Amino acid sequence: MPTQRVTQAQPVADNQVSTSTASPVTASEAPDKPSTVNARQRRTRRSVFPLAALALAVVMIGSAAVLTVRHFAATMGNNASTAWLQQEPALRDQAAAWVSQQVSFSAKVACDQTMCSSLSQAGFPAGQLIMLRETSTDLTSSNVVVVTPVVRAMFGTSIDTAYAPAILVSFGTGTAKIDVRLVAPNGVVTYQSMLGQAINQRKEDDATLVGINGITLSSTALDQLNGGQVDSRLVYAIAQVASTYSVHIVGFGNVGMGASRGVPLRYADIAENLPASQLGAMRSALAGLGNGIRPARTQDVTLADNQTVLRVEFTAPTPSSS
Fold first, then answer.
1. For the segment 48-94, what is each residue's pLDDT rounded down to a tens digit?
2. Would you give the DSSP letter of residue 107?
3. What residues pair up with 72 in beta bridges, in sequence order?
4. Mean pLDDT, residues 89-101 taken together
5. Dihedral sign, CA of 81, 82, 87, 88?
6. Gap between the Cα atoms of 230 and 294, Å rounded
7. Which of 213, 228, 172, 209 is nearest to 312 (CA)?
8. N or C: fewer beta carbons within 10 Å in the chain?
C-alpha cells in the first residue's frame, strides 16, 4: 500500500510563549489577502472622492465670498465700508423718513434694495419705487434718487455728471453720506444750462408777492424773493389768500441740510398774528386751492426764537426744476 506522508506541526517551546511581549494577533488585524486589500482600496477611494469634492466646493464658496468682500472694500475703501456699516442704518432711516414726508407720492424714486425696503416701511408707496441693481445703467426713469454708498458704487461719478446734479438733502458726512438727489430727465448739461433761466423766471414770479397789499415781509424773506429762491407754487398760493387775510412772511426755507444752489425753497413761515378764527379760515382756504398750488400741508411750527408760525409747505420736486 502506498504510504501517506503526514506533516506534523512543530511544538512551540514554553519559554517562547512566556517571554514574548507581542500582543496576540486578532482576525481583524491579520494581514489581508491580496483580493481583500484591493476591495478595501476601492472602497476607500469611493469614500474619499465625495469628501474631496465637498471640501473643494466649500473652498470655492469661501473664496467667492472673500472676493466679494474684497471687491466691495476695494470699491468703497476699507475705511469707507467700515464707516458705512456703522452709520448706514441710522442714516437710512433718516433718509427714508424725509422722503416719505418731503417727496411727492406721485414721484418715481430710485433706490437700492435695502433703501427701497426702508422707504416702503416709512410709508412711501411701493409702486413708485424703482429698485436699482448691479445691472442698472440708467436713472432717467426716476424723478428722485436716494444715493447710498451702494448706489454710489454702482454708478460712480456719473450720478453727479450725467443723471442727478442737484441735492435736495444730505444725511451724514464722508463716505457714509446719503444724498437725496433730483434727477435731470434731459441730462445734466441741459439742467445746468436751464438753471439760470429757471432762477430768472422765479424772480419774476416771486416779485408778485412784494407788491401785494396785505402782505408784509421780513428782510430775510424779501432777500429770498428778490433772489428768485422761492418755489413759485408758494407765491401763487399765498397770493390767493392775501386778498382776504393779512399775511406777514417770516421767511422761506427747505426741510433738511445740504440742498444745492438753485433748488427752490418749498415752505413759507407765516406769523400767527391773526385771531384763531382767521388762522383756521386761512388754513381752510389754502387747503381748498386748486391742483398745482394747493400746499401739501400746513402746520404749526415753533422756531428757534420760540416764535410760533404757520408753515405752508410743498413737496419736492418742484415741477419747473424736474
1. 444 344 333 333 333 333 333 334 444 455 555 666 667 889 999 99
2. S
3. none
4. 97
5. positive
6. 16
7. 209
8. N
